[in-house]
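ASSEMBLY PREDICTION REQUEST
Request ID: AP-0331
Submitted by: J.K., bench scientist
Number of chains: two
Total residues: 976
Priority: normal
Notes: Please return the full assembly, not individual chains.
Input sequences:
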Amino acid sequence: MLLSVTLMFQNYPATASFDELVNASGKPRDGVRRVGELIARLGLAELQARQRAAEATIRALGITFTVYAQNNDIDREWPFDIIPRVIAQREWDGIARGLEQRLRALNAFIDDLYNEQRVVHAGVFPGELLASSKNYLPACRGVHPKFGVWAHICGSDLVRDRDGTVYVLEDNLRIPSGVSYMLENRAVTKRVFPELFQEQKIQPIDGYPGRLYAMLSSMAPESVPNPKVVLLTPGSYNSAYFEHCYLAQQMGVDLARGRDLLVLADDCVYMKTIAGLVRVHVIYRRVDDAFLDPEVFEPNSLLGTPGLMRAWKSGKVALVNAPGAGVADDKLVYSYVPELISYYLGEKPILPNVETFRLVDDRQRRHVLENLTEFVVKPVNESGGYGVVVGSAATPLELSRCREAITVNPRNFVAQPIVALSTAPTLCGAGVEPRHLDLRPFVLSGESSYVTRGGLTRVALRKGSLVVNSSQGGGSKDTWIVCDD
Amino acid sequence: MERAQALARAIQAVERLSLDLPSKHSPGLASLLALAGKGDARATDVSQAQALQALALDADDASSVLGALRAARENLRHARVAAPPELWVALNNQYLLLKDASQQPASRVLDVLGSVLEAGSRIKGVVESNMARDAAHSFLNIGIELERADMLLRVLRALLPMMTANGWERTFDDVRWSGLLQALGVHSMYRQRHHHQSELSTLLDFVSVDSSSPRSVSYCMRLVEDELCQLPRSGPVSAAVTVATSSAFVLAHSAPAAVLEDIDSTLNALAAVHQALANCYFPELEAVVPPNSEQPGAVAPEPPDPFAYLEREHAELEAALRLLDELASRAGRAEPVEKADLQAIVAYLTDYGELGHHEKEEAILAPKLIEHGFDWYEGPLPAMRREHRHEHMYISELAQLARHRSAWSAEDTRRFAADASGLTHFVRAHMERERRDLFERASLSLSDQTKHLLMQAFIDFDARQQKDLAPAKSRMAALIQHYADRSVAEG
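STATUS: Completed
Returned structure:
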């Protein structure tokens, strides 16, 4: 067995980054050693054959993501690498606690912002940042969602730096996506690696749709025995439409578009069915705030339903995530999360933030502008990797434009030192090579909370690239939480 | 998928014909281009390869096999949540198989077209064994049957010209006949039923109304009707299905010179069923389900009673039933029955009874009751719908008798007496059950305000229907008067 491990990883290039599976000596790390050995035992040819089998499965199952730019066949097959990313159970338990802690604090923060704003009065969070926040929705003021939860579903992006420390890179609190790919990755891996599942204690993840449904049901505003839950989708041209269908199917709930719903004068939401109107109690909405209700937000929106905000504010329907939760999704707010944890929970943060420079601060801005090639500059309200400039990889023109954009509107950007992002063995053409990756676990929050066992590992398939987003050439891996050896 | 199968079957049959017929007498794939809406069936300047490309591999045109599969796949992508996952896998695999084959030689494409037929059967099996019996299942089956009937007639229309050979070409009649049956997908069923008869009239009967052929238009319409029974307020669609079935009967007895015209009429009738479905269930949903606009505190001045309104309609229908009793008694006494009178009664029961009264009950009353806690699947509402369908069957029987071109035989008269009597007994019992099990309970369950809204919806509905219902109502009034006068004259 040792020979096979040696053969598999003997040419595995060492990089300056932390590798999730292989240590500096070219051997599987403690805690995930057995999985490393089992993969090595399969050998390269067998791995390649199974990669082809996985790709055929993905094609047959139609696991896709949508790309707006392509007119024909807008759904693209999901790029997937069969070598799993492995995390030891003991380490994961700490990460999960940190994620729960973080979401508790963020929900307390959002609830506070839309009500008393104690955090502003206490000087912990600057009022001017709130005043200039694009995602703060005055229409949500004074609302008290059930259990005080605004962000019911959160997808936080985690990265691991050179020294092995896991950091939170950002929190996605508006409409985090990717959980269906996490589940499908596992389904594909189980098909192509059944023997590894027999020989390893790998934490199952299949229970997520059930947990999600239970959380959604629990948010029903009245004590109805069987609340009607629907998933509101912008439609089949949305990049996450596959996920919308997948989750609706897995939960056994209806998939609705805005025009399928109706809010009547009683402020209740109804779904139009061929048998008449059916009352809806919970909406898992995958439509952005701005398009949710043309009566309140974008008046020309065809994606939402007129009156939805009225129904939500009068407590007749639950919206998940709640409108306005995105106020905490601002990357500038992210930089305050450690203080928020301390302020609301009186606890020390379990998971650290990546050091973040607030460019509204003159001194910090000056430092960043003088050393731009050492930073990643991010727009505070974008997601999916759009608008991110990696200083070390940017052209002079890109750097110049970035500098100008920061100068014109510093509130719109934050900067972070370039995190080396850990790597993991990835099947690349002729061999196994290290590729950078991150991890998006999902946290559900209702009366209680739940963290997925693992999450969606996104991997930059291009050598040396740090961009893991599927819309920009990234792929994914199954994530295994395994019991320590 | 049904369209892809029908096209694939026709392409394969025509390809096989080209092996047996001298090339200049072979219809060639170009003969099918009209079927796919791609030009004249007699086009001679299109090569086999070009025709195959257009009929089988044009991914951007849903009239080609690949295009139809792609459209089906895209539809399923939109409706994935309502379908079993296995359905997606089966359809997706077939689409990818043909898409990949499109880069291969023609022989490979023809092989893969064979697999389209198998995939269709597999998909039907998946639907039957793995899909919940809900409205989605009903709509899927209705779509399959409509497309099946439609494509059968289109293939027939495209290939009929090749059957008009004369002179020495008639040597190949058997080959052509077999090819046509294979293209229609009825070869072995037809042989079992009619052996080697090769009469156009027999074929027309077989594809139009034969009750043993699952591809005949009337058979498909019967299945559509069965599915409609599972859906609410399907009255207008049922009416369109009745017209399509009647059209198929006309086609079955079509004179040779009128065949193409009658095929077109039946295709139009099938299109009307599709349109009725769209109107009934999709774009008009908001219009037929009046939104609840109840305002707290707004009290209607005088509580209206929509149930009294419906019972008044029952009373009006009762007058027509009495007349039908009268005709049935006359038939029982072997006295002549005027078919025109029966036609007037049937028209009244269809227009006023089904499209007016039943539609109000199913499209306005039932949704409102569901909003107020009535069950769609159990209790008086499904009973009401079932009985409406049953009543429709009786009326259809009488309509057929009324349309007889020749004089009634003794058997026809006996059937009329039995059906008329059956209908009147059934409808009276149904009306009594509605009054007792539905109206009384509903009246207790609804607030005065809701009843007021219901009443208003009935009145609005009748105002919209008034013009269409007026002829049947006035004919019925005249007929009642006529028989009253006659009864007086006869002492």
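REVIEWER COMMENTS: Residues 31 and 484 of chain A are 5 Å apart (CA to CA).
SIGN-OFF: pending second reviewer
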